[in-house]
Please model this.
Amino acid sequence: MKKPRLFYLDLIRAVALISILIIHFNASVTGYFTLPHQLFTSTLPFGIYLGDFGSTLFFIVSGASLCYTAPEHFETVSFYKKRFRAVYPMFWLAWVICFSIRFVARPGYYAGARTITLILTVLGLDNFAVAAGWVGQDFACVGEWFLGSILFLYLLFPILLYGYRKHPWLTFAVTCAVGSSIHLAGWDARLVAIHLPEFFFGMLVVGLSHRRQILLAAAAAVLLALQTLLGAWDTKIVCALFGAVVFVVLVIAADAIAFGPVKRLCALLGKYSYAVFLVHHVIILRLVEGFDLGALSRRDTALLFGAYLVFTALASATLYWLDGKVRHGFSSLLHG
Model:
């Protein structure tokens, strides 16, 4: 039996998406933060980078969504097949289109990329590989580094789900200890491990009552307060705590704003979020090429942001539609 849709998951997914859209716009129009901000800030309370905050919410809501929809009789192979179909076909389609355009429009752009790194692109690990320092240049052109991170967490999900169903609090403690230890040691280039407790936090919260959710958020808030007093914690850990508090606040607040237009808007953003995630960065990088960023006024920055949203929406809707057509055509080719 299909479970009812949870509005707060759509709401949080929308907040995460907006955060990512804004931070990549900011990065592009400020020459990667070398120029003054015109419209939006890039730093939240506690010195948290907006991009880290958006990523944290994304990882938390991913864990919550997968745990909520996981069937009682969970089958690992079926789960991996479903994740494969959800991630790779649209990624490959977007990559083929964007790579073809960039390769022709900018001859020599990929001259420094090693051919062997095409394997990383096929696996969806290209941006992750560059961020981790595995390669200096890759054939990456769509998506973001955290696609690679979420793929690693998908691999671990069957084990995490087993732990959640057998010993949830013990498993949460283990993920916090292991994730923070590996992160602080830097063994994962600080790209994956810290998101393990975030991911499991989402799994944990989705099954709790509001009262227990609030208690859990209060514990994270106390740790944040201690960080303010001590001022010596890792910024990614601080972001994870802040994200956990905001996540629960949005869960509770969702009941107050769960009316027609808001629910439909958040559901719409959730529906197209993966397509937006794949194309938005390509679009803003292309849009800023013709501007003198140092002379860009606040008014023109606002107009550019509006154009960015329009083109991203059009490209995402087109990609979503085209992905459906390609899947249907491929299925017809195989099965008649």
User: Anything to note?
Assistant: The chain has a mean pLDDT of 93. Residues 7-328 form one domain. The first strand starts at residue 43 and ends at 44.
